Amino acid sequence: MSDRPTNRRDFLSGRSAARAIGDAINSASAAEPQTNAPAGSHQRQSAYLEEYSKPAMACQFQLLFNMHQYPQSGPATGEAFELIDRLEDQMTVYRDHSEISQLNHTAFQAPVKVEKRLFGLLQTAEEIHRETDGAFDITAGQLSKLWGFEQRSAKIPEPQAIQTALQTVGSQHITLDAENETVFFAVEGVKINLGGIGKGYAIDRTGGLLRVEGISDFAIHGGQSSVLCAGDNVTEKGSSSADAQSGWPIGLSHPVLPEIRLATFHLKDQALGTSGSGRQGFFHQGKRYGHIIDPRTGWPADRFLSTTVISPSAALSDALATAFFVMTLEEIETYCRTNTDVAAVITIGDPAAGRGDVELVWFNLGDEDWQRA
């Protein structure tokens, strides 16, 4: 297994969203120091952005605002980080008291009522599972554990062990009662893990909180693999020149060589999610096995180096980036043709090869939506 403990977070611009934005925006004025950083967070000042950061959900969350645009940015960020902490405490499978852990312990015995918005998230996950023909599945966490990726001691399981695990994998085993907002597992051993959608959901909820606080221009990212950008990244609404491109510039890095940028997107009221296994996996008898497992087969997917999705929602972008990684190009194209508000960029190549062997395939992206390096 790779000695580099990374997953999706390095596939966006490796230096951070703030640095990517800094490359694309010229600023001649120096920033005055701010003193309203929320407790428990880190704030870095630049000449053009306020940046607040906090560790949560096994990554670093960052909130970015145009400098001096919102006097309430510090207090609002404090509320946002408190919300992220609460959501992690609700959704994590690594704390026995969390709502998801309790659900996993008891939902086979009887229907379990869950918090309203969490129930809505489970409905969203079920819909994505259905629309991707099972490529996205919140019950697939046990497969990752079986392969040893959770413990970072990966090895190929016995075929019979994979088949046994697959008997408890499948969102079709989950019954959601919309009237009573309850969850029931039809098969013993089913476990929910929201790792493929929970971070995006937390980012969406955080964005909603900021809008309630009157903040409409901001960027949020979690671990640099999940990004939500709102507004046009222009402090003075009338100052945008005709040749300037509005939106928050977010860089897409090479899946194996993060110092190389492959493209830049300009996001405005959009979210981006990236999945990939170019640097996390192991070799066995000359074949490489990545850490993203197809829940339909129980085996790691190996078609692509990374999959990037742009959509109106961070939760949707995260989930679809995971699903697209195990789908075929034809399946991805069909999905994007049906869902025109979803765009995708697929990186294809050999993880051991250099930049020259990387190919980009994209859907629902026009020349005005991005710049390829």
Descriptive overview:
The two termini are 31 Å apart. The protein is an alpha+beta fold. Helix content is 28%, strand content 24%.
| Unreliable residue stretches | 1-41, 43-47, 236-243
Radius of gyration: 21 Å
Mean pLDDT reading: 83
The share of residues in helices is: 25-40%
Q: Helix/strand/pairing class, anyone?
A: alpha+beta
N/C terminus separation = 31 Å
Which helices and strands, and how do they pair?
Blueprint: H1 17-24, E1 42-45, E2 49-56, E3 59-66, H2 73-91, H3 99-106, E4 112-113, H4 116-131, H5 141-147, H6 159-166, E5 174-177, E6 182-185, H7 198-212, E7 218-222, E8 226-230, E9 248-253, E10 261-267, E11 270-276, E12 281-284, E13 287-290, E14 306-311, H8 314-326, H9 329-338, E15 343-348, E16 359-363, E17 370-372
Antiparallel strand pairs: 1-2, 2-3, 3-7, 4-6, 5-6, 7-8, 8-11, 9-10, 10-17, 11-14, 12-13, 14-15, 15-16
Helix pairs in contact: 2-7, 7-8
Which features characterize this protein?
373 residues; alpha+beta; T-fold; 9-stranded antiparallel β-sheet; 3-stranded antiparallel β-sheet; 9 helices; globular; disordered N terminus
TL;DR?
This protein has 373 residues and is an alpha+beta fold. It is 28% helix and 24% strand. The chain has a domain at 99-185: T-fold (Orthogonal Bundle).
